[in-house]
Write a structure and sequence with these properties.
With 291 residues, this protein is α+β, with helices and mostly antiparallel strands. The protein is built from nine helices and four strands, in the order ααβαβαβαβαααα. Helix 2 packs across helix 8, helix 3 runs antiparallel to helix 5 and helix 8 runs antiparallel to helix 9.
């Protein structure tokens, strides 16, 4: 029994130079997979934030339109099927809306700022907006109805494509971890064939031989995963300080967002499990070929 345990320790204690680079290679794969997972969260948040656009429309009526025309426009809108609410923005609301572009000190009453009307549309509305535009053009020439739904549809299509790309990148990164474990274990098996045969002669089961190797690869994967997840977290912190250009999840949730932590922790854990499983399968297949 002591000889058996000694041979098992010899099999797992012998380290090759390539093993020193394994955690760093795993860390790179987890770093990429973690950022890809965070990218999926960002896209999902952006799509959720833009979803209300499907239920809103804005009508711009020329600034020189008379009060009577404005009242007629409002009456037309309120009578349109599918229009839930109609709200004419007053001067303070309009000023607040255009302040980011014109500044707080610009007198709006001296500028040809159009009258803005906010519309709420029922989600299942079957409104003929082409006919509504023609009717509005008759009542208030120059009126423009802004429909955000085509923009939202294009955003959804682009998000689906990006989700596919990021999902494929995550799968490739995890697959590379598995291939790394497979090739590294195979490269060491030929040099350790005498030790494996000795363990077989001493009566060791294949599971007893594989267990320490699989455990070693579990820790190698977890170590590399922790490094990669930590690097991804630092990258996200750095990008969050880049200003409004980069919005990482979520704007008000901070770095403690459970989704962010779950993605990074899950990527690190997956790296360890994949490395262990790949090493175990490779070892078992090799042992099955031994006499």
């Amino acid at each position: 029994m002591m000889r058996l345990r000694g041979a098992q320790r010899r099999l797992t204690a012998e380290r090759d130079e390539a093993a020193a680079f394994v955690p760093w290679l795993v860390a790179l794969m987890v770093y990429l997979a973690g950022l890809g997972g965070v990218g999926l969260i960002v896209l999902d948040d952006a799509l959720r934030a833009a979803a209300p656009l499907a239920a809103t429309m804005t009508l711009q009526v020329p600034a020189d339109a008379s009060k009577a025309r404005l009242e007629t426009v409002l009456a037309v809108l309120r009578q349109t099927p599918g229009v839930v609410s109609v709200h004419l923005l007053d001067a303070p609301e309009t000023a607040q809306l255009v302040e980011p572009w014109l500044g707080p000190s610009v007198p709006l009453d001296q500028l040809p700022v159009p009258h803005l009307i906010d519309l709420r549309i029922a989600p299942d509305a079957a409104t003929d907006f082409a006919a509504l535009r023609r009717q509005l053009a008759t009542v208030a020439p120059g009126a423009r109805l802004d429909d955000q739904r085509p923009l939202l549809a294009g955003m959804r299509a682009a998000t689906r494509r990006l989700d596919g790309v990021l999902g494929a990148a995550i799968l490739v990164a995890l697959l590379l971890i598995a291939l790394l474990a497979v090739f590294a274990v195979r490269s060491n098996l030929a040099a350790r064939r005498p030790a494996l045969e000795l363990l077989r002669l001493l009566g060791a089961d294949d599971s007893d031989i594989v267990r320490p190797v699989a455990t070693r690869w579990l820790w190698l994967g977890l170590a590399g995963g922790a490094i990669g997840a930590g690097a991804a977290l630092l990258t996200i912190l750095a990008l969050r300080g880049a200003g409004a250009v980069v919005q990482l999840p979520p704007p008000d949730g901070g770095i403690a967002d459970w989704r962010l932590l779950a993605v990074l922790a899950g990527a690190a854990l997956a790296a360890g499990i994949i490395a262990m499983a790949s090493a175990r399968v490779t070892m078992l297949r090799h042992l099955a070929q031994l006499p």
